[in-house]
Amino acid sequence: MSAVPIEMADRRKLIQWLLGISVATVAWFIAYSQLSDFAEWLVGLLGLSRQTHFGEAMHFFLYDTPKVLLLLTGIVFVMGIIQTFFAPERTRALLSGKREGVGNVLAASLGIVTPFCSCSAVPLFIGFLSAGVPLGVTLSFLISAPMVNEVALVLLFGMFGWQVAALYLGMGLLIAIVAGLVIGKLKMERFLEDWVQKILAGQTAHPVDEKFSWLQRFQAGRNHVREIVGKVWPYILLGIALGAGIHGFVPEDFMASFMGRDVWWAVPAAVVLGVPMYTNAAGIIPIVEALLGKGAALGTVLAFMMAVIALSAPEMIILRKALKPTLIATFAGVVAVGIMLVGYVFNWLL
Asked: What pTM was estimated for this model as a whole?
């Protein structure tokens, strides 16, 4: 008796979701197309002129804030739906039993669409190893998940075009795959902490086949927006404010003097500078945009961004719970070399 009303209620909710998404999509594109005029109007309303440093900085802030928030909300909602197809247990099951090589490619690819950050590194690391996923394949996933960030990818596409986004995606995947292969060949399992090795001694896999309805997938997308956007918006405002300061007050071509493509040491220096910092992709992209506008080379700036995301000191501290210093140093060293290669390749090509 109760099954029919519940199904009808769910059907009504699904129709409401589809109508709401349709209206929101149209409103999103209209709002995004009017951002420049909106920023100009607000600057005028405040009585400022873009001919002044402060007026130009305010225009950057008023233009980039809604732009980044619109992009982020749309991306996070879509990724929240996509990620219902890649729950942790299913990801673990997909990687279990895969040989190195194919497993590294699959792991790096899954890292792009899965919601894991450095905060979840240790439990995921242990879960994958205990399911029989080889160490090198697991590390390909752990490198790809934060570094080839879906938010950074779509923001780069929106701000710099598909060529830059595609190059970032390709080089990030290459680093994750090669780094995982290299560490796998080094046979460094003995540098896992003892308690991790005890877990590996009793390897078991328990795949769970979670199935979602489309109503649940839409609700997951909404919850993902609440969780991610609700958490990162202060970082976004801070990043855009820093970017606005650079855009408005730093002289033209100033950054070229020490972050330009002709400065050979700029790429490794950018990587070293990025390690002690910790932010997210949405917060760092506006700074990337401002640095590029002031003459910094794209490869150098991207190396800085990737180091902040993939080699942050907090992530190393979290991983220390499971990895001995030798393996952490190898992991960080291989990834750092890969990021520097990306920086030099970007500077050479663009």
From this structure: 0.65
